[in-house]
Every structure is written in C-alpha cells, then in structure tokens.
Amino acid sequence: MSSRISARISAISESATLAVDAKAKAMKAAGRPVIGFGAGEPDFPTPGYIVEAAVEAARDPRFHKYTPAGGLPELRQAIADKTLRDSGYQVDASRVLVTNGGKQAVYQAFATLLDPGDEVLVVAPYWTTYPEAIKLAGGVQVDVVTDETTGYLASVEQLEAARTERTKVLLFVSPSNPTGAVYPREQVEAIGRWAAEHGLWVVTDEIYEHLVYGGAEFTSIATAVPELGDRVVIVNGVAKTYAMTGWRVGWLIGPSDVVKAATNLQSHATSNVSNVAQVAALAAVKGALSAVERMREAFDRRRKTMVRMLNEIPGVLCPEPQGAFYVYPSVKALLGKELRGRRPQTSAELAELILEEAEVAVVPGEAFGTPGYFRLSYALGDDDLVEGVSRLQKLLSEAV
Q1: Distance, CA of 372 to CA of 223 (rounded, Å)
Q2: What pLDDT digit, counting tens, does each position of 169-190 carry?
C-alpha cells in the first residue's frame, strides 16, 4: 500500500527552533513562567514609519491587485540601491527577486541551482532550514564541522577536504546563525578565491549583515571576491535588520538566468509577495539604519552579559559571538552527569530537563548538526535574560 504522504515531504523535519518557541509559548499560556531563548527574532517592534507606509498601502487600490511575481519594480530597485550602499555590490534591479521571507529565497536558490545528487558544502553548526531546503531540491548536504576551538570558522583546507566531483555549491554564512561567528575579510577572500578556482557556486546568506559587534566587520563574499563573477547568489531580507520577522519579505540576488528561473518557480508557487508587506519593506530599505543601530546597542550589552553568566557555570564553555544575536555554548562536559535524579546523555535530553525543571527553553545542538551544544538567543529583554540564565546557573550547578 502506498504511503499517504510522499517520501519527499515525509523526510522533512519540523523547524526545531520554531518547535521550541511554540512549546515555550504554550507552557506560558498554561500559566508557567517560562523564559524562552529559542526564537530567532528581535524583541523590538517594527519602526513606526514602516508600519505607517503599510497602512497607506492598504488604502491604495493599486495594491489590492496582482503585481509582478518578481516584486514591485520600485522595491527591486531599492534593494539594488541598498545592496550597493551596504556591501558595495552593484547589481541591476532586474537581478533581484522579492520573496516571501528569507526562507523562500533560500529554498528557491537551491531549487534553481541543484539537480539530484549535486553536493552542497554546509558549514556546521548550521541553521535548521538549510538541510531541508537542500533535500527538497534533490541536493546532497556535505557537512564541514567546526567547533569552539576555531570560533566556529571553517578553513579552506577543511572545505577542500570535503569537496568531490559532485560538489556544485558552497553555502557561505557570515554572520552565522546559530554561532554568531563572523569571518574576517582575509578568510572571506581566501574562501571565495578557492570557490572561484574550482568553479563552484556560492550561495551566501547575508540576513545578519548589520548585526556585528566589537571590532568585527561584515564582508560580502560577492564584493570581496569579484572573480566569483556570476556564480554567486545572495539571500537576504528585512526580518532581522528592521525587526520585521512577521512581515515575510526577503530577496534573492543573482545572475539573470538564475533570477529568471527562480521567478518562474515563484510565479507558480506563490505569485507576488503581499503588496502591503512589500511597501513596508520599501520604506525600510530606503530609510536610515538608525533603528538597527539602537537594536545593536541593546544586543551588544545583552551579548556580553549572557556570555559572562554562562561561562560562570561549571561545565559550560561559551565563546563570545561577533554577530547575529545568538550564543552557542558547549555543554558537553555536563552530559552524563546526574541532575535532579536523571543523567542526560545528549544535549537534547539536557534541554528537555532544563525546560521541565528550570522552565527555560533552549535549542539543543542536535538541531544545528552538532550535538553537545545549546543555542540561546539574546534577543529578549535584559531582565528576562538575566533571570533565565540565573535559573540555568542554579540548576546546572547541581550536576555531579
């Protein structure tokens, strides 16, 4: 008897980060004082001028109808202008595709580039959606595993060791979700030149480009390595920079043939992105970066607090992230120890115990391809952050 669900869709895993966030919210709704470190979204509201632009768009009959599947022409031009402003990468508006959030851009990039069996080099730890998008596109993920000893940065030597005749794409992410790692310019250049030398495509996710701290700087591989030519695809969106996770506007930038093919796919999958959301995104990308500057100041303060407090816990090792709004501490030294009458053997089991005993939600490293770690977001209020990590300190200090 045939299965009711196709093998292709049955193989997709639920988003672990959204699942943890949903469970935490359900427990809070039931009256438990859960503090969630799972969600990857700013805790700030969308800036008012962006909201007002959406309100006006909702009143405009022009936006009550279908618009081009590839995006509003004025938004595509504004994204091209913003890309030149922020990363120095010059691109014609015709090479921009507006998508329903960054996730759709990621999927459509892989769906457009990959044939069954094509390999994609993915640096682990990785964001949970990448494997599923690659799998849906028929690709084969090849992990390049990093750890805290290198700041979660992959070397050219590691990438070359993983490359085979079937390798077609390198997925490059900086700043990184879940680790907050930011590649220095010289390493970006070295990796980009290596990819160009071997004729690989590079898909680069730049969604956290404006969230870097201390002396770290964002470097777009597309700009830093012009010899990549037309074999680079950029995915990005307004979600993180402008606190617009719920508005669902992202984009894909690439060579003309790739953008045309991805647009054809989108024309059948979703047609145009909501016009009201597109007008809001237009106001965002054309506006100043003052809102993200204020968010970055808060995130930087919280980042330092969280790293300090986590490193005070025996058995926890937390490198200081340079970007995004996550920490990725190792908890390997705690596994197998007794805690409240249990001996969790995996970071997933330890995360479950923490949620039950301390009412704190974290995402275990299994979700990101590297067991033995947790991802915690510091995109939440200062008081909740301190309270949540204090609960972790109190609970985990009992481990023997």
Answers
A1: 35
A2: 999 999 999 999 999 999 999 9
